Amino acid sequence: DGGITQSPKYLFRKEGQNVTLSCEQNLNHDAMYWYRQDPGQGLRLIYYSQIVNDFQKGDIAEGYSVSREKKESFPLTVTSAQKNPTAFYLCASSIRGVNTEAFFGQGTRLTVV
Amino acid sequence: AQKVTQAQTEISVVEKEDVTLDCVYETRDTTYYLFWYKQPPSGELVFLIRRNSFDEQNEISGRYSWNFQKSTSSFNFTITASQVVDSAVYFCALKGGANSKLTFGKGITLSVRP
Predict the structure, then answer these.
(1) Which residues of chain B have pLDDT under 70?
(2) Most buried of the four, A48, A55, A95, B33, by CB within 10 Å?
(3) Is the Cβ pair B102, A48 closer than 8 Å?
């Protein structure tokens, strides 16, 4: 089946540790996105990429890093510099271009203790 | 800069009532697209509709309808004869610009009571 796979679904980490969230898609999409969802805040864009080896900061990129070495993969690292990392993280992908809808993974709920 | 405002945060209706979810957007782009997504309790966002900035025709799909008005920068979503299964968080989104940045509103939590 084609789709977007985020793993793991639930992730627990100790404060001060970096953690990497996985996002893989087999839809052959060029564009990929990472969003953070907090109660009452909606979806806020962290990073996005339109093509391999290129990515742009979104609205809340501080404390996060990404890489886009392969078309199908867009991992997100939550670093120790992120002050409040506990949240629900959603990955999405789309065909490149302004007229295309994004498809979403099932999300990863990160809890930092 | 792009911005999407969903002023309503929570709406509660009784089954079979009609309900309208409001969306207002801001953008400097002349070409852009607007979207609505549904997020059920499972968490995954489901795409509902896409509308481009040059097409102001209203659209109806079953019990769902959308009203796009460029003059007021609004793209409102109406559910007719709501059902319990419509209970979810609904997001309005805007995509535009050279890098196709996709910006979401804060979402509206809709609860439909039997």
Answers:
(1) none
(2) A48
(3) yes
